[in-house]
Amino acid sequence: MSQKLHYFIAIPLSQQLRQMYSSWQLECKKVLPYRQWTHRDDLHVTLKFLGPLSSELLRKLDRTLTSIQHMSPFSVQTGDLGTFGQPTSPRVLWIGVDKKAELLELQKRIEKLILPYGFLKEKRLFFPHITIAKKWAIKQKIKNNDFLALQNKYKNQKHVLYVNKIVLYRVQPKCLPKYEKVQIYELSGDNNGTTN
């Protein structure tokens, strides 16, 4: 069964940020009819989607990803609301994450590490974000004034995400929260990091 479950690598959010963005979701729910709202404990910044993994490949990836631990922790700013998809019925609602050099390097290094296992580089440029909702629920089109009001409300509300670990997650579709932490890789800034 584990081979059918999907995996991904991501940066978890602190409890403080999860609480903050959960309150943003409550405000957005009043005017944006999405079918799926990300559970507070599932909020994250995806670095690489892996898809289904065999037990053997999972073990190999775990050993490989431990080398990421020598990277130093860093911080990035998060904030602003945006969407993917049609402006009138966007499929994804997200909170932006600054494209800081350290973040881009972390994502690039992960992609390079897993290339030998058959994972391809993303064709699209890496666009860091926190998905807070997806799947537009109805045929009704978004009201521009409503969404602009939300964007303006949160426009200058920047928050710091301290990146001191990455997590290998397993997707449990029937659970809530549905992202299970399989392994945590602490960014220790040296070559002697240990995997928790």
TrEMBL record:
The catalytic activity, as recorded, is: a 3'-end 2',3'-cyclophospho-ribonucleotide-RNA + H2O = a 3'-end 2'-phospho-ribonucleotide-RNA + H(+)
State its role: Hydrolyzes RNA 2',3'-cyclic phosphodiester to an RNA 2'-phosphomonoester.
Q: Which family does it belong to?
A: Belongs to the 2H phosphoesterase superfamily. ThpR family.
Q: Which residues form the active site?
A: H44, H129
Mind telling me what this protein is named?
A: RNA 2',3'-cyclic phosphodiesterase
Q: Which positions does the motif HXTX 2 occupy? A: 129-132
Q: Give any Pfam family that matches.
A: 2_5_RNA_ligase2
Gene3D superfamilies according to UniProt: Cyclic phosphodiesterase (3.90.1140.10)
Listed InterPro entries: Cyclic_Pdiesterase (IPR009097), RNA_CPDase (IPR004175)
Q: What are the record keywords, sorted?
A: Hydrolase
